[in-house]
Structure formats: structure tokens, C-alpha cells
Amino acid sequence: MIKVSVLYPNSEGKKFDIDYYCNNHMSLVKEKLGTALKGGAVEVGLSGGEPGAPAPFLAMGHMYFDSMEEFQAAFLPHVATFMGDLPNYTDITPVIQISEVKLQQFP
């Protein structure tokens, strides 16, 4: 299983409309990716590791896929659509990380 994380770095003066992201953008993503998308989550940064420190990321979106091949087959045809929606919710250039999930079980 792989996890695709879309991270929106926190920087003074940047905007991020979490309501639009959750209610519109992620609905678009789910529709376009179909059954290849196995699950996901949206997170909002609250703080950094030190008390009072700002969160390093304003928001993060995570998506799970069975394999890199399934992700690429589902995602790549829609990159222009997803990027075209970006100005509707943020002026931040996202950072993307693709990870192999080694453990997804917690008590």
C-alpha cells in the first residue's frame, strides 16, 4: 500500500480555505480517482513540536492506494484538473510525498 501526502507549508500571509478543500476539492478528487482511492484523511496543522510554535503545515491531505501503478493510472490523467482547482482554496504551492506504508495498525 502507498500513501500520497499533499502538504501545504505554513507561511505568513498565505491563505487556505479548509471548508472548500474538504467539501469541494476532495469531492472532486474522490470522483476522479474512483475505486483506485482506498481511503484518505484531511488534517489541519495546530502547532509545531515546541509549545507555542506554529504548525509547519497549514493543512495536509492524505490518500491511500494499493500500489504506485494504481495511483499513477488514476491520478495522472487528472493532474490538470486538480491543479486548476488549486487557486480556489489556496495560494500555497503544495509539497507531495509518496510513501510506502509499512505499518497501519495501532491499538
Number of helices: 3
Distance between the termini: 20 Å
- Average pLDDT for all residues: 96
Query: What is the CA-atom radius of gyration, in angstroms?
Result: 14 Å
Order of helices and strands: EHEEHHE
The count of β-strands is 4
Question: How would you sum up the major sheet?
Answer: 4 strands, antiparallel
Proportion of residues in extended strands: 25-35%
Helix content range: 25-40%
Envelope shape: globular
What's the number of domains? Answer: 1
Describe this entry's structure for a reader.
With 107 residues, this protein is α+β, with helices and mostly antiparallel strands. It has one domain (2-100): Alpha-Beta Plaits (2-Layer Sandwich), CATH 3.30.70.100. The chain is built from 3 helices and 4 strands; from the N terminus they run βαββααβ. It has helices at residues 18-33, 68-75, 79-85; strands spanning 2-9, 39-44, 57-65, 95-100. It has a 4-stranded antiparallel beta sheet with strand order 2-3-1-4. The protein starts with a strand and ends in a 7-residue tail after the last strand.
